[in-house]
Specification:
Helix content is 21%, strand content 32%. By secondary structure, it is an alpha+beta fold. GO terms for molecular function: acyltransferase activity, transferring groups other than amino-acyl groups.
Length: 135
């Protein structure tokens, strides 16, 4: 029997699991203050269990960036390529929806992870998202 791995957009009944996975590096409190036009969440499921989540924000204006607010993988499933799989899906969304690129903020020790996943640091600053902002 083959294992079932799925990436999809979140449904209402996923929020408890999303919050558990992303709580270490993201808080939904104060999100309304960010001027979010559109919040989207990608879910990574393995055999109907949510094991990863990617929280995205997009703006309405044309030629905008997609903002990666959080990328989280359940601790039991880390270091197996699932974060890289979610990032590849985000990159596909950027192309499909004609975004200029991906913006994100991360802790300095995670910069090399994003570089390993073919992200380039075009702009580096302490961002309003917290941590180091990558564009």
């Amino acid at each position: 029997m083959q294992s079932k791995l799925t990436i999809r957009f979140a449904r209402e009944n996923d929020w408890d699991e999303i919050e558990q996975i992303t709580s270490q590096n993201f808080s939904f409190q104060g999100l309304a203050d960010t001027g979010s036009d559109s919040l989207r969440v990608l879910i990574l499921e393995f055999e109907d269990q949510v094991i990863g989540a990617c929280i995205l924000q997009s703006a309405k204006q044309a030629q905008a960036y997609l903002t990666l607010l959080s990328l989280g993988i359940h601790p039991m499933w880390r270091k197996q390529g699932f974060g890289t799989l979610l990032l590849a899906t985000v990159k596909s969304l950027v192309v499909q929806e004609s975004f200029l690129g991906i913006r994100m903020a991360c802790q300095e020790e995670l910069v090399s992870y994003f570089e390993m996943n073919d992200f380039q640091l075009d702009f580096l600053e302490e961002g309003s998202l917290g941590g180091i902002q990558l564009i």
